[in-house]
Amino acid sequence: RTFPRIDMFKQENGQGQSQLKRILESYSLYDPDVGYCQGLAFLVGPLLMNIPETQSFCVFVRLMETYEMRSMFTLNMEGLQLRLYQFSSLLHDIVPKLAHYLDSHAIHPAMYASQWFLTLFAYAFPIPLIERIYDIIFAEGAAETIMRVAIAMLK
Question: Which residues form the Rab-GAP TBC domain (predicted)?
Fold first, then answer.
């Protein structure tokens, strides 16, 4: 389940879970090429915690389309592959010792960063930090913010 420790999502078939389900079902009809993918609920949840359901759907669509999250959830996940490549390059440039250590132990970015990128860190961080990350994403862009947060975490 998504955000099991958050009150609005605790109750099975409760208001929060029902809103989340409606948004994800609506999105799967709106964009059948993406449909429903695991991880999408982690993108919608923080929106529902802060704005009404209808607005959450609209902002979610904008997040997927305008902020380039959609390509991370298409069949071949080309957006995710691109982000992982960019992240690996940045990691080698900014934190070379760590990058070489991870490489020498065959720990590839896809093994740890995919979940960060697909959920905008919502799976890993507390909600107040996720809300701040969303603020920065909407102000400055998703790709840039994802990279900055991931690199900062590993520095």
Answer: 1-141
